[in-house]
Amino acid sequence: MNQHIDRLRLVRTESVGPITYRRLLSRFETPAEALAALPELARTGGRASAPRIPTADEAEREFTALHRMGGQFIFLDTPEYPEFLAQLPDAPPVIAVLGDIDLLHSRAIGIVGARNASANGMRLAENLGTELAESLTVVSGLARGIDAAAHTGALRTGKTIAVIAGGLDLPYPPENEKLQRLIAEQGAVVAEAPLGTAPIARHFPKRNRIIAGLVLGLVVIEAAARSGSLLTARMALEAGRELFGVPGSPLDPRSKGANDLIRQGAHLTETAADVLANLPDHPARQGLARDPMFQHGLPGFAEPAFAWADPAEGARELTRARREIPALIGTDPVGVDEIARRCQLSGAAVMAVLLELELAGRVETLAGNRVARPADL
């Protein structure tokens, strides 16, 4: 239990995102060692004060509050964690789950689409949810419109997973509170955010990547050209998931996104049979980027990636890396491999310095093994 408390403290620490979490547990043998090293790492990266680290009491209170709700935490490097979600390079270090955790390991299909969906779109989403839930777990985001219709349809014949953007104790939108409660009783509700977190705009892309990570394929119904549903589709495609698009009238802007996906190769989908005929048993490729820090894969957090045969040479290389790397990172994302190539530095030195810079708040680590300087610096 103590190690889980330390893991949760590390997850909730200021400046520690999903990728940084993995890197810390690759460098240090235990979460406690990582927590102890954080202040010095941040100082070395140029931070004036230590990042805020939750106390053990705060983490225990969060555990207790979730348990009282009937939920549980699932950590990334445990057998309970969903296999396909773990393949994402920025997989959540911990998820909170209300309901049946076994569903997270079932064959699943995602259904997403417009919040301001048409009556026909919602009827189709509900029908697809009902038919697909007979043999698959239906995953969606509990939003108004298509998401809610897909969940409602799935509950008639099978199971569904709702991935939400805020804390499990703050249903959103409010009108879906009863639906969320039904899903928790008959399926599962998943959240990455801590209890008490109100969903805001920047939380929804994080939710979307979890939807993409849990499923084998994603059905898009009525998505505008620039929408969260298309962002989820892009994330699913990058993770090797199968894409399905429901065609719509070219006169309806809500149909442009799905129509474009079909034009680009997504399966044209009118019935559940179209999905079942083209859904694989496994993702087309593993989505986990082979970061130099994760050469042993998952769980594999004990990777000694920071060792140098000659400590003096390693110290000299780190000094040069700390001097040269910050100047190479701007607000436009750049690949970590490109930084190493330009500096002629080892991967160990580059990753060590990037970790320090991120903990200092001077660098953001992005999916695709890229980094960028925060826009407000």
What does this protein structure show overall?
There is one protein chain. The longest helix is centred in the first third of the chain and has 14 residues, at about 30-45. This protein is an alpha/beta fold. Helix 1 runs parallel beside helix 3 (about 30-45) and helix 1 (about 1-10) crosses helix 4. It is about 40% helix and about 15% strand. It folds into three domains: about 1-85, no CATH class; about 95-275, Rossmann fold (3-Layer(aba) Sandwich), CATH 3.40.50; about 295-370, Winged helix-like DNA-binding domain superfamily/Winged helix DNA-binding domain (Arc Repressor Mutant, subunit A), CATH 1.10.10.10. It is globular, with a radius of gyration of 22 Å. Helix 10 links the parallel strand 7 and strand 8 (about 240-245). The strands form two sheets. A nine-stranded mixed beta sheet has the order 1-2-6-5-4-3-7-8-9, sandwiched between helices. A three-stranded antiparallel beta sheet has the order 10-12-11.
Structural class: alpha/beta
Distance between the termini: 39 Å
Mean pLDDT: 89
Overall shape: globular
- Give the ordered list of helices and strands: HHHHEHEEHEHEHEHEHEHEHHEHHEE
Biggest β-sheet: strands ordered side by side in the sheet: 1-2-6-5-4-3-7-8-9
Largest sheet: 9 strands, mixed
The Rg value, from CA coordinates, equals 22 Å
Low-confidence stretches: 287-306
- The count of domains is 3
User: What's the total number of strands?
Assistant: 12
Q: What is the name of the CATH topology of the largest domain?
A: Rossmann fold
Number of helices: 15
Beta-strand percentage range: 5-15%
Task: Please give the CATH architecture of the largest domain.
Answer: 3-Layer(aba) Sandwich
